[in-house]
Amino acid sequence: MDMPTAWPLWRMLALALALLLGLACAQPVLAQADPDREAATAVGGVSPDTWRQVRSGEVGPNFRDSRADSTYNLINASGESWRQLRNRWVSPFGLIAVGGMIVVIALFYVIVGRKDLSEPRTGRKLLRWPLVVRSIHWTVATLFIVLALSGLNLLYGKFVFRPLFGDAVWGAMISASKVAHNYLGPLFGILLVVLLARVLKHNWPKRHDLAWFRQGGGLVGKGHPDAGFANGGEKLWFWLLATAGLAVVASGFVLDFPNYGQSRDTMQWANIIHAVGALGLTAVALGHIYIGTIGSEGSLEGMTTGYVDETWARDHHNLWYEEVKDQAIPEEQLAAGRPAPDGGDEAASRPG
User: Fold this and answer.
1) Can you list the alpha helix ranges (DSSP code H) found in the chain?
2) Terminal CA-CA length for the chain
3) Is the same domain home to 8 and 143?
4) Are 89 and 178 part of one and the same domain?
5) Which residues contact residue 53 at a Cβ distance below 8 angstroms, ignoring those fewer than 6 apart?
6) Is 351 exposed, middle or buried (0-12, 13-18, 19+ CB in 10 A)?
7) What total number of domains does the chain contain?
8) How far is 228 from 313, CA to CA, in rounded Å?
């Protein structure tokens, strides 16, 4: 073969070698452009044997969690179980509980209406809630509302606000909700314990509470059932806060402070308990708010001014009224800035 015919062959070989080198250098770029190829390069083949190893709890060197002294797999089956439980059960439960309560309250208001006083007001007032209790109550109530709204935003907001306002506004909303929830949650928990301890003496169950529930708080039958300082419904709300409420607070502390050695499983269960308890309490709280405001004439006055009219006391808490009726003072005396003497606080604090 002469030299003139050999040059084209060498050129072809050189060109083929250059193409091979170019393809080799392009592999990382192609892997980044294709997520599936990138995953295949980073993780390797995830075979059925790999998934069996993950579900069995075995820990292989290629799936070890990077945290110190961890025995978890990076691919952890319990995390998927938590996600399914949260998305398929907890989230729908929240919508049914909160949304259903709103519908029930609206229907009740339209059909039954407000519970008015049975007789005209007497103009004589009884001290029901001293200033300290009212201050703690309104602080706890305000924190509860903020935590409920921020929690609902964290759970459902992305389906409502993100399509409406876009990623930028949604990102700011979710960030604010997370900060508010994390920082106000512990304060709410502390003040809730203080409030529960302060009003515990009014909320011990009594025999007449059973009759109150049988009559549906006065909705069934004639007349209003007997009630002491706190009726059966108020006592039920108290014990829900003292049980489910404290469970929500405790699980919230676990989630808020993950640097005390909680395991991944502990955090997942704390999240489920926190969500279920908080959603249930939010639903019941809507009923509590309705009854204490527009649902019952005169109820809101007790927690705003501290005083209630004699007629309201007789209608809703007749046993307590019989104990403290001699403590009633004219409304003109309150308007003149002369509240009840110190004995009034003691009267309001009597169990009944």
Assistant:
1) 3-33, 35-43, 48-56, 77-85, 91-94, 100-111, 131-199, 208-214, 232-240, 246-256, 264-292, 299-304, 310-316, 318-324, 331-335, 343-348
2) 118
3) no
4) yes
5) 60, 63
6) middle
7) 2
8) 10
What pTM did the predictor assign? Answer: 0.76
Burial of 325 (0-12, 13-18, 19+ CB in 10 A): middle
Instruction: For residues 118 and 38, state if they share a domain.
Output: no
Same domain for 235 and 310, yes or no, is: yes
User: Residue 142 is encoded by which pair of tokens?
Assistant: 């305000």
CA distance 189 to 183: 11
CATH code (residue 203):
1.20.950.20
Same domain, 40 and 90: no
Whether 62 is covered by a domain: the verdict is no
Q: Are residues 232 and 274 in the same domain?
A: yes
Chain segment 302-316, per-residue pLDDT in tens: 999 999 999 999 999
Q: How many whole angstroms separate alpha carbon 228 and alpha carbon 320?
A: 5
| Calpha distance 222→13 (Å, rounded) | 104
d(CA 93, CA 99): 10
* Residue 122 domain boundaries: 77-348
Domain for residue 146, yes or no?
yes
Beta-strand relationship, 307-309 and 124-127: antiparallel
Two tokens, residue 24 = 């080799």
Q: pLDDT by residue (tens digit) across 162-196?
A: 899 988 998 999 999 999 999 999 999 999 999 99
Name the token pair of 322: 């019989």
Residue 276 in domain = yes
Instruction: Give percent of the chain with pLDDT exceeding 70.
Output: 73
Beta-sheet pairing, 329-330 with 124-127: antiparallel
Same-domain pairing of 7 and 130: no
* Same domain flag for 8 and 99: no
Strand order in the sheet with 124-127: 307-309, 124-127, 329-330
What does the radius of gyration of the chain's CA atoms come to, in whole angstroms? 32
Residue 208 lies inside a defined structural domain of this protein: yes
pLDDT number for residue 260: 80
